[in-house]
Write a structure and sequence with these properties.
The complex is a heterodimer of chains A (about 300) and B (about 525). By secondary structure, chain A is α/β, with parallel strands linked by helices. Helices cover about 35% and strands about 25% of the residues of chain A. In chain A, helix 7 (about 215-230) packs antiparallel against helix 8 (about 235-250). Chain B contains 16 helices and 16 strands. The chains are: A alpha/beta (about 300), B alpha/beta (about 525).
Chain lengths: ~300, ~525
């Protein structure tokens, strides 16, 4: 069997506002647009994804939160309605997706062998989290590839962000091994924002861009620092800084997504492709990817 | 029949085990039996509505109230999906849900209703309503637990429930859905191996149960911060269900408490408890935090952090690279240059008396009523110039100083405010009246009015420093008659500082320079 590989890693934030702003058929609420810098960036990355030959998407999301180990989706398909519990006024999305159960089981098995607590999720009534739906919709709106969702273990709540960082790396290395053994070409997605201080009130018109800005300057400075590290290909340095970044900006990196993906990709030392940065209800969001293939790697922004 | 709008309160666990797997563990079965007993009691009650506050429904944008008339779904828990699915169809009291939301807004909370098909009702609410009200005999109302909310918001949220009940003339059974200790095992355990995670958790759970059994709900509410620090995994900022439950049930200790069951739920502490309002009390509260009626302003849990991070050199990491503002930056002037300019404009007679005491120095130079006016003019003219990063600050709209000192002085990231009395900045009169006449004969006066005026003057001075009361970190208060005035002063103080949580010292002193009863001195964080 050909050795499997990770063909692209994407940092893909999941504010439901972006789907809301786009007005796709699948989503019930209607908007007047908004957050174009991120959405246009997403569209460009989605076009790049169309040019890549791959078999499945594996996504780690902070909105499937598990406290008893890491869980993996384990049913062939899921079809339902995803309603954001925080912004139900923006996101009520009808999804119909396929799961690569074989790959999911492989990752669960190898992660378990490496000492990580794991569980397959076999309940067909399970509702897939809105982080998965949002990131996957924006990167692959055709939904023509099977996915695997990996839950976010809340080590950060039980122990510390340092423990989270270490365990996410162990999970990343195990997933890489599983992907290699599967013989499949896989796109990874870390589904989360960077800085994550929210405004706790919402504008009367949510897409009123005159009200949108980063929560505070410190958040912005941190976001720019870590984006610079991405642009410079210094991901090991970023991962080393991750606990402090997470603490200082309440970042969604607390779920381990980016750490997991970077560990799976062997800590890239080449520049990330940056597709866009914008705040959403005060949080800092960047759309970025890491392309291991030097020939297709681009300098975007 | 009691006039209390809450017939009784229940405290129940959010985990799905009593609903989906009561036969797999003795304790889970006992919790289920207790749930069933509570269901019977609710059925026998005269409740018009069941109000559920669930800690597993976190919200960010204010508090949310479920008003979908008949929400229907098949729910699956994120962690315990292997125990099975939870199909449900509930009946909501839409009228009450809207009233509760409006009452919350009236008390200053940000609130909104949700009425969307497919809205993900949380595990705790699904478990509680499925077991307590399976036939939907009584309509329900579910309210979220805001992630960032702390004590004041949660207390106010509870009081808003009583407001809505009274306004609609309804009787309620209220349900707080929460664990006691909430640390679960982080690995899979067989049902027969389940136990409380640690001896420490067990000790604290027993202490909490003892409080419940004694009916000491308000005492438990006062202990909430300790409980959060001791046995709660820090998923949110505080342990809130005791606050909500106590506020919703009237903030006292007069209950008949009954612990119907207590057991471990994958390591966490699960209990089914009933509190019924009763006559009599176990005694005074153990200690008191100030009460709060209305929530004012945004949560400072985030803003405080932001402020710290914005402070120059205030954090490690990239912000250490932040440079001190250039001298030509807006708002920043070298203090030496400022003083030089003042000498140029007003001359050495005025300026040389004291570096910061511009107004008083001018007054001293000219003496008498004319001097007083001159002092005021000089002070007002110089205020803008003195707004350097460090240095003296004179507030144009505050009562003038009675000596050679400025209203405030900034040093680094702190603002030091001179002692402030209640004198009116308009005409120097004393709101609430002076404490004595010109001959030293005592007069009746209103300490609450004086305290209000004191705090207003502090606010004016802080405003001149581009700050506000929320920046205050420390307060020192001087009272000339502690025995007479402390209660009134303390009441007004709580109204303004409940949220701010500044440290405070209150001292009794023999006299103040003018016939006032109170003076306050504060230290504040510079903006």
């Amino acid at each position: 069997m050909t050795k499997g590989e990770i063909v692209l890693g994407c940092l893909a934030p999941h504010p439901p506002h972006l789907v809301y702003a786009e007005n796709p058929d699948e989503n019930e609420p209607i908007s007047e647009g908004g957050w174009e810098a991120l959405r246009w960036g997403y569209a460009r990355l989605a076009r790049k994804l169309k040019t890549i030959d791959y078999d499945a998407i594996v996504i780690l999301t902070p909105h499937w939160q598990t406290y008893i180990g890491t869980h993996f989706l384990g049913c062939d398909s899921f079809k339902s309605l995803s309603v954001d519990p925080i912004f139900p006024n923006l996101f009520r999305y009808h999804y119909d997706l396929k799961v690569d159960v074989e790959l999911s089981e492989k990752m669960c098995e190898i992660a378990g062998e490496s000492g990580i607590i794991t569980k397959m999720m076999r309940n067909p009534d399970f509702r897939v989290d809105y982080g998965t739906i949002t990131s996957c919709h924006l990167l692959n709106p055709d939904w023509d590839k099977p996915i695997v969702t990996v839950s976010s273990n809340r080590n950060r709540h039980y122990y510390s962000v340092e423990v989270m960082n270490e365990q996410a790396q162990a999970l990343g290395r195990a997933c890489r091994k599983a992907i290699e053994e599967s013989g499949k070409r896989v796109v990874l997605i870390a589904s989360h924002s960077l800085s994550h201080r929210h405004f706790t009130t919402e504008a009367p018109l949510p897409e009123d861009m005159s009200r949108e800005h980063i929560y505070n300057h410190s958040q912005y400075v941190w976001d720019m620092k870590v984006i610079d590290l991405m642009r410079d290909g210094k991901m090991q340095e970023f991962i080393d800084l991750m606990p402090e970044f997470t603490e200082q900006t309440m970042a969604e990196t607390e779920g381990g997504g980016l750490t997991w993906m970077m560990a799976a990709m062997g800590m890239p030392n080449y520049p990330a492709e940056i597709y866009g940065y914008q705040s959403v209800i005060g949080t800092g969001n960047v759309v970025a990817c890491w392309d291991p293939n030097e020939e297709s790697r681009e300098w975007v922004l | 029949m009691s006039d209390d709008p809450v017939l009784f309160g229940l405290y129940v666990p959010p985990h799905p085990h009593p609903l989906l797997a009561p036969d797999q563990n003795k304790g889970w079965g006992e919790l289920r039996a207790a749930y069933d007993e509570c269901r019977r009691r609710i059925e026998e009650s005269e409740a018009d509505v069941i109000i559920v506050y669930s800690t597993t429904w976190p919200s960010i944008v204010g508090h949310q109230f479920q008003v979908q008339p008949e929400p229907e779904w098949v729910h699956v828990d994120d962690d315990f999906h292997f125990l099975g699915s939870m199909p449900y169809k509930f009946k909501m009291d839409v009228e009450f849900g809207n009233a509760y939301k409006n009452a919350a807004e009236s008390r200053g909370l940000h609130a909104r209703t949700v009425a969307y098909h497919g809205f993900p009702i949380d595990t705790g609410s699904v478990v509680a309503l499925s077991l307590l009200n399976p036939d939907n005999r009584i309509p329900a109302c579910i309210v979220s637990s805001n992630m960032y909310a702390n004590r004041s918001e949660t207390i106010v949220l509870g009081k808003a429930a009583r407001d809505a009940l009274k306004a609609q003339g309804k009787k309620a059974v209220i349900v707080a859905v929460s664990s006691l200790s909430n640390r679960m095992f982080t690995k899979h355990v067989e049902p027969e191996d389940d136990r409380i995670h640690s001896a420490k958790d067990e000790d604290w759970n027993q202490k909490i149960l003892e409080f419940f059994e004694d009916g000491r709900l308000e005492d438990l509410s006062q202990l909430s911060r300790d409980i959060h620090g001791q046995i709660r995994v820090q998923k949110v900022v505080a342990y809130k269900p005791a606050w909500w439950m106590a506020a919703t049930m009237g903030q006292h200790n007069n209950y008949d408490g009954e612990v119907l069951a207590y057991a471990s739920l994958h390591g966490s502490g699960g209990a089914v408890i009933q509190l019924t309002p009763a006559k009599g009390s176990v005694g005074d509260k153990e200690f008191d935090e100030d009460d709060v009626e209305t929530y004012r302003g945004d949560r400072n849990v985030l803003h405080d952090g932001a402020g710290d991070m914005q402070a120059l050199g205030g954090v490690d990491g990239p912000l250490d690279e932040a440079e001190r503002p250039e001298e030509d930056d807006e708002g920043w002037r070298n203090p030496v240059e400022v003083i030089d300019d003042l000498y140029d404009e007003y001359g050495t007679t005025v300026i040389s008396h004291a570096g910061g005491a511009i107004g008083a120095a001018a007054g001293a130079a000219l003496a008498g009523p004319v001097g007083s006016v001159a002092a005021s003019i000089v002070a007002k003219k110089t205020v803008g110039k003195m707004m350097s990063k460090d240095g003296a600050i004179i507030a144009e709209d505050a009562p003038s100083a009675v000596g050679a000192y400025p209203h405030a002085r900034r040093m680094g990231n702190l603002l030091f405010i001179s002692g402030v009395g209640p004198r009116s900045p308009e005409d120097n009169t004393i709101p609430g009246g002076p404490i004595e006449d010109g001959d030293g004969n005592p007069l009746d006066y209103d300490i609450e009015a004086q305290t209000e005026a004191c705090i207003e003057n502090i606010r004016i001075i802080l405003e001149a420093c581009e700050a506000d009361l929320s920046n205050i970190v420390d307060v020192t208060t001087f009272l000339v008659d502690m025995k007479r005035d402390f209660a009134g002063y303390n009441k007004v103080y709580a109204k303004h500082f409940e949220e701010i949580q500044a440290t405070r010292t209150t001292l009794a002193i023999q006299a103040l320079p003018t016939p006032i009863a109170v003076e306050m001195k504060v230290i504040a964080k510079a903006p």
